[in-house]
Amino acid sequence: MSSHYEAPIRKPLIIGDKNYHDVTVDVAAPVEGRANKQWWIAFSIALAAFLWGVACVSYTVGTGIGTWGSNKTIGWAWDITNFVWWVGIGHAGTLISAVLLLFRQKWRMAINRSAEAMTIFSVIQAAMFPVFHMGRPWLAYWVMPIPNQFGSLWVNFNSPLLWDVFAISTYLSVSLVFWWTGLLPDFAMLRDRAITPFTKKVYSILSFGWSGRAKDWQRFEEVSLVLAGLATPLVLSVHTIVSFDFATSVIPGWHTTILPPYFVAGAIFSGFAMVNTLLIIMRKLSNLEAYITIQHIELMNIIIMITGSIVGIAYITELFVAWYSGVEYEQYAFLNRATGPYWWSYALMMTCNVISPQVMWFKKIRTSIYVSFVISIVVNIGMWFERFVIIVTSLHRDYLPSSWTMFQPTFVDAGFFIGTIGFFFVLFLLYSRSFPVIAQAEVKSIMKTSSETYKKLREQGGHDNHSHSENNHH
Amino acid sequence: MYTFSSRLKTIALVLMVLGILGIGYSFFTAPKTVEDVEKILAADSHHGGGHADAAHHEPAAHDAHAATTEETHAPAAEAAHDTAHAHAVAATETAHGEHDTVHTEAAVAAHDDHGTAEAAHADAHAAHGEEAHDAHAEHQHHLEHVLGQLQNKPWSAVYVAALFFMLISLGALAFYAIQNAAQAGWSPVLFRVMEGVSSYLIPGAIIVFLILVAGTMDLHKIFIWMDKDVVAEDHLIQAKSGYLNKVFFLIRAAIFMGGWILYRQYARKNSLAQDDATDNSFYKKNFKASAGFLVFFIVTESIMSWDWIMSVDPHWYSTLFGWYVFASFFVSGITVIAMITLYLKSLGHLEYVNTSHIHDLAKFMFGISVFWTYLWFSQFMLIWYADIPEEIVYFKMRIENYNLPFFGMVAMNFVFPVLILINTDFKRLSWIVVMAGIVILCGHYIDFFNMIMPATVGDQWFIGAGEIGAILFFLGLFIFVVFTALTKAPLLAKRNPLIEESKHFHY
């Protein structure tokens, strides 16, 4: 796939004196060991938050949507904000596993597994909002085009909310298949190392009888490439369709053509920030610092910086075109964002999303783990507010001043959101103790080109490659 | 070292000469007076109805005159009757003739003061009544309008081609900067080709700049907002004059072009210096300059597209527009890199370029074609879906009067390259890549044609001597400049720290 020669300016991706066996042991350790006290504390907190979310959702479904802070003007608020936020976070996983695969970025290998897990868990969170923000969620199956006894009453395919159904369900399915395919060799590794009959049984089932023959590997590679090729347009189209929920409307502040690519850029931005948050903790707690190195964090920071700048350009474009359009409603929508009653959320969004990633231009900052961690959280707060600003400030003041109003969330709104955060961490914590969190088969494939050990060996070998090519030259 | 073959040089010169002849012919044959226009329209009248008829429709004509042929009368008139908004719409697209400004005036006034469609409608009619109670005057106005369009035609033809070739060069430069900033290991053997393609940026930008200057000197009417008489009557353009004014417009253009050229020259200089260097300092300089350029580029590219392309329709706006334009010329730039690489390779000049490099370029052609389509569709669909009158005119005009180019380019820029370039083996075959490349380049020329022409020549468009001449002239100039630049330095960047990876690249 890639060249046999690697330029000396490339820094090692696996640091320390690691061999193939070390990789196996390091990756398997968290799965084979027992959870410590910290894990149980974190898990309990996440579970409590999750259960609180379940209670809030039950209350909503039982009592009615009126328990939320939404009103007649602002029919969408936290529900859709959280939905878009979670979908956005999910995008980085596919980006890392698919887009970085297409661009042959070797550094993706240490982070793709966890990024994809993050995708799947956050899409699950996202998918709950479209169901439970319905007034009658028990009729949710009506969104599916199923032949029925109402004279085959059909859905209207013109609504982006219906496209959402297809986008999200396809996205979840494809991501799951992509993730699981990649897991087969790693589950097989755990199966082969299992000591107890129970774990042996479990990982035998999960690994689908993977035996690692040449033909299997060849097809495995091909499937990964095809899925990456499919997942890339999918990831763009999913968040594009989410953006269509707003952009197809005629609401000032919503109806703007830049939303599709700008939502996608924002999704990558927030998704990478979340990956950074999770991996900075994980590399420490699971002792994976040799694989998830400072360079990985730096590269993720660079992507955050690039997508943050793209988002910044989009903000400025929207502002400029609002003025340029000469449409007073559009102009007011942006004036209201900047100076209206929700100015603070707009200011927060601008600070977190436009200014904070710009600090990554300084190498000192982007290679600092602490700063990266803080910025990654700041970005996720900013991106939550971006969705809140787009949704609520556009709705609360639009065409008719007599319909202007405010939005105040209730504890149920908050409870549902907290519940999804809890559920996400329940899933992620369980994952980190039962799944191989690094794709060891992939990491082993770059051992000879990109590990510190081999790079040193090559240097001592006296620039074999170089002299070879010099000979070629003459 | 590559030497510019005399045969290719001759071809380039012949193209330029033919191009100048075509351009000259189109300027020479453009109508000078309304009498000329009357003759042209009379010759065209077999289109059904005939124009003279329309001009004498007593009550209806004053609405219908916005459209210039019988085919477009019905929709335009319908739109004009609907609401005051729609009235503004009909005017927006054809606002290039002075007589249309009354539409805008009336509609804008109605929009501000009355709000209800009926009131605005009546208002617009009243305003019209004063202006055009005489059908003959009406007809005269129409002829002047068409005269303006036909006089714009040769200028627009030159502008579209000049812009297209300059942006190809800029697209290649952006690709080069990305390759540098991303520390790509596959592409350094192609750097000299990319530098060659970007060398056209200097003459290309100067020519585009001169055309913009010609606009500010009222030599042509591509940018209708530069016309004092139009602006005086048009509240919408007046509101934009803080941005759309001649001085600021030229300053912006100068800064953008200056910045791009500066990076191009600086990167080229460092790239050559790195060949004989003893360390990687020039490489590092280029790395930093490329990152800086990309930031400058993303900002200036957006603004450039509003200035030089979007502002030809000064009433219309779209936030996506800048990125859409970017995708169009970016894929064209990559395509040209691939085609020139294949040409040089076929002459035996690029020793280390193998089918894997071509494969990668073809993948970019494929991927960015899909990306262009994504942006095209997003912009089109969102405006079509919401159907807001101020925005929809843009596509309404194009679908009604430019139907084949408008949808044909989607086939050329998306369907064809996607179908042919999805196959891995095909992406390694020179003739497939060249064939796909030709279709992509023609398709994106039409994309730019569709962006400019509807606003400047309206339904008077056709691809004739002026358009083809302009393409040939700039193609000849492009070949001449690029291949001259390619002779100036060895075609392999010698001491780039990633060059060995690139030489050994296999996919």
Describe this structure in words.
- Chain A: It is found in: Cell membrane.
- Chain A: It is a multi-pass membrane protein.
- The complex is a heterodimer of chains A (474) and B (507).
- By secondary structure, chain A is mostly helical.
- Chain A is 70% helix and 0% strand.
- Chain A contains 18 helices and no strands.
- Chain A is globular, with a radius of gyration of 24 Å.
- The model of chain A is unreliable at 464-474 (pLDDT under 50).
- With 507 residues, chain B is mainly α.
- Chain B has helices at 6-29, 34-44, 51-56, 58-64, 70-82, 84-94, 101-113, 117-131, 135-181, 191-198, 201-216, 228-233, 235-240, 246-275, 281-308, 321-346, 355-386, 389-401, 403-421, 430-456, 465-486, 499-503.
- Chain B is globular, with a radius of gyration of 25 Å.
- Chain B starts with 5 loop residues before the first helix and ends with a helix.
- Residues 48-124 of chain B have low confidence and may be disordered.
What's the main sheet of chain B like?
none
Which residues of chain B sit in consecutive blocks of at least 5 with pLDDT less than 50? 48-124
Shape of chain A: globular
In percent, how helical is the residue content of chain A? over 70%
Keywords (chain A): Cell membrane, Membrane, Transmembrane, Transmembrane helix
Subcellular location (chain A): Cell membrane
Family (chain A): Belongs to the NrfD family.
Transmembrane segments (chain A): 39-63, 83-103, 115-135, 161-183, 223-242, 262-281, 302-323, 343-362, 369-391, 411-431
